[in-house]
Fold this protein.
Amino acid sequence: PRVTIVGAGRVGSTLAQRIAEKNLADVVLLDIIAGMPQGLALDLMEARGIEIHNRQIIGTNNYADTSGSQIVVITAGLPRKPGMSRDDLLKTNAKIVVEAAKSAIAHSPNAIFIVVTNPLDVMTYLAWQATGLPRDRIMGMAGVLDSARFETFIALELGVLPADVKAMVLGSHGDLMVPLSRYATVNGIPITELLDAATIERLVKRTRNGGAEIVELMQTGGAFFAPASATSVMVESILLNQSRLLPVAAYLQGEYGLEDVVIGVPCRLGCAGIESVLELTLTHEEREGLHTSAQSVRRNIERSQE
Ligand code: NAI
């Protein structure tokens, strides 16, 4: 199989490395900067003997080289600078993502699309609109990353293995995300048995601010290792038809009382893309949180089209 990554920046190039080194697929890295994706591809190819895999990595500035991809990941666009919110990237990235989605689908009409560019939920909606794809074949990555951050903070607080912590974060990728604390566990034991309410609230706050915390520390762009890992899990579940149940930004058609909006919800991901959307029974507060996040995504979809 072949995966195209549009945007060979920090998230895109790290994702290319993950996909090749996990031996999931050949990778085409595309960017507008001449020579840059070609150089990265050559660098990754030269690591193959050491990492022991035989995946092809191609760098290009031309969409014709992406043809016949099973998956297209869009990471093209600007990242945040300190003090910026994801929404500040709206108009610039909207143009880039719409153009990338249209060009990519023209060469890979059967591909499944994963959008990573921020503001995530809005960009996924615009890419859905631009490609005209059915909702099972286009989605955004955010929830897997936000959940991994929540799990990390829980593991650090309790001094347990990160892999033993399971949590799910729904809603939009931003301050209005909806971490489902009551479902978070350490090997099946609810964290509500292990931590007091104030501590859980502190970890939830840190999760909401997880992206900004890294932007402020780095001062030059944002996170990319964990985002690339999170995206590679989605790519893997699709390519290997694993049907993993993951939080995915999906176009909703009435689920959770929401329609014509993209928001993070639990989805099963397999070879056809989104196999199903799981509708959880939410508390009043969680449902309100999801609806508030959806309203802000809707407002930004409108703003992006003004
Ligand atoms: P970066 O600046 O390192 O890379 C972006 C790349 O896109 C650059 O190489 C740039 O040349 C390229 N690009 C710009 N316009 C293009 C076009 N029209 N066609 C093809 N390529 C184009 O940024 P980074 O750190 O890789 O982040 C990429 C995006 O992903 C940002 O919008 C960032 O906010 C977002 N992001 C989203 C996450 C999520 O959870 N959904 C997590 C981390 C980042």
Q: What stands out?
A: The chain has ten helices and 14 strands. The first strand starts at residue 2 and ends at 6.
